[in-house]
Write a structure and sequence with these properties.
single chain, mainly alpha, Serine Threonine Protein Phosphatase 5, Tetratricopeptide repeat, 3 domains, binds fe (ii) ion
């Protein structure tokens, strides 16, 4: 029987289909351009190859086309007969996820990975900050991500994908030095893995390596296709470092070319969160942000995410709506907040509303109340600095500069010298 790159048996007798499948899975794992096209090629080569068809559904989901993912996995579910246990697991997991049943989906992932630990296609759904654990909204999710990836360690050894995910979990739980060593090895094994370059960027950020980070990711992006999934978000990292270095022309060049709606080619979740985030962090740093830019990202949020659903998206949408002055859209998020982190989302949305009307004491009260558990809102530590620095702004506006300095030194000591908020 033929096997995939992780030695799992696969049900195709075509060596060409196998090679195409291995390549397609690698493209998905490394965020390369052409992921869905790669799975299309697998299906064209062997239309009866269940993992190829289930993989196509997952590829659509992972690149932001949930409706197509639902359609494809529905067809697989309805037509696949006599499948193996592992194939049934792929169908079940990708079906649950495409239909938004993330809680049941994660339970299915845990069962599946226990039986098939080297099934990276399924394990992948629950690694990284953008996975099922990262977006769970539950307390302790960063530690859970480290536990999940650590449990896989004996099964993967020196594998670039595994080391990439392990390094991210280490980084986000504060083990930055260890993460640094692990990501070096991952990138040595596969230098063109965009998720590896992403984790390398987070490690530079957490180590306070601003100049090194900007030159690293600028060089790396030179050879990365604009249509690939991570291009916009990696450009956000570059724009953020440019801002930190006071290179505001360079920051705006990146935002306008590769981050904002209408320019970035990536997934709406990144386009919304990255744009709202960089606009507000620019404002905090003292840049003037045209109201038109806020209206643009607010309209984008209303178009692509008309109803609240995923807290990470919703709190960035709330920021955009508040700054754009769209009270109806902001109220929709507050009244429709759902999921395990709905309590924090309501506080964050109200806080942004208070910031927009310059009610600094109220914004301070709301942000303070959520900050102990801000990780439940989702996103990386670098992304959640938006909230950290928003609170500092509220303090500074009330003349509490000593308190702001102490808070930054306490919460984000490595960033204490980066002047993230004007007047600090
Ligand atoms: Fe990131």
């Amino acid at each position: 029987m033929l096997t995939d790159r992780y030695d799992n048996p696969i049900s195709t007798s075509s060596a060409t289909a196998r090679d195409l499948y291995v390549s397609a899975v690698d493209k998905l794992l490394e965020g390369a351009p052409g992921i869905t096209e790669a799975f299309d090629a697998v299906v064209a080569e062997d239309p009866g190859f269940v993992l190829g068809r289930a993989g196509l559904a997952r590829a659509h989901h992972a690149t932001g086309n949930v409706a197509k993912a639902r359609e494809v996995i529905g067809e697989v579910r309805g037509t696949a007969n006599g499948v193996t246990d592992r194939e049934a697991g792929h169908i079940r997991v990708f079906d649950l996820l495409a239909n938004g049943k993330t809680k049941e989906g994660f339970a299915a992932v845990v069962d599946h990975v226990a039986a098939h630990p080297r099934d990276a296609m399924v394990a992948q759904t629950s690694t990284s900050i953008f996975g099922l654990i990262g977006f769970s909204g539950l307390p302790g999710r960063e530690a859970e991500m480290l536990a999940f990836t650590s449990a896989l360690k004996p099964h993967y050894g020196d594998d670039w994908w595994y080391l990439n995910q392990y390094a991210f979990a280490l980084c986000e739980t504060g083990q930055v030095d260890k993460a640094d060593t692990v990501i070096d090895r991952s990138l040595a094994l596969n230098p063109r893995n965009s998720h590896g370059a992403h984790v390398r960027s987070h490690i530079y950020y957490e180590a306070g390596e601003t100049q090194l980070g900007l030159s690293y990711i600028s060089d790396w992006l030179e050879d990365y296709d604009r249509s690939a999934v991570m291009h916009g978000h990696l450009s956000w990292h570059a724009a953020l470092w440019a801002l930190q270095l006071g290179q505001t022309d360079e920051m705006w060049r990146r935002v306008d070319a590769d981050v904002k709606p209408g320019a970035a080619l990536g997934m709406p979740i990144n386009i919304l969160s990255d744009t709202a985030s960089i606009l507000y962090r620019a404002e905090l740093a003292g840049e003037t942000v045209a109201q038109e830019k806020w209206r643009e990202v607010s309209a984008y949020a209303s178009r692509f995410f008309p109803e609240p659903g995923l807290t990470f998206i919703d709190y960035h949408a709330a920021l955009a709506h508040a700054m754009a002055g769209d009270g109806d859209a902001l109220n929709r998020i507050m009244s429709g907040a759902k999921g395990p982190a709905a309590d924090l989302l309501r506080d964050a949305a109200q806080a942004f509303g208070a910031i927009a009307r310059q009610d600094w004491p109220e914004a301070e009260r709301l942000l303070t109340s959520l900050m102990a558990e801000d990780a439940r809102l989702g996103g990386s530590r670098a992304q959640r600095d938006l909230l950290e620095f928003s609170l500092l702004e509220c303090l500074l506006k009330q003349g509490k500069s000593e308190e702001a300095r102490r808070l930054l030194a306490l919460r984000r000591p490595v960033l204490a010298d980066t002047h993230p908020v004007k007047g600090l």
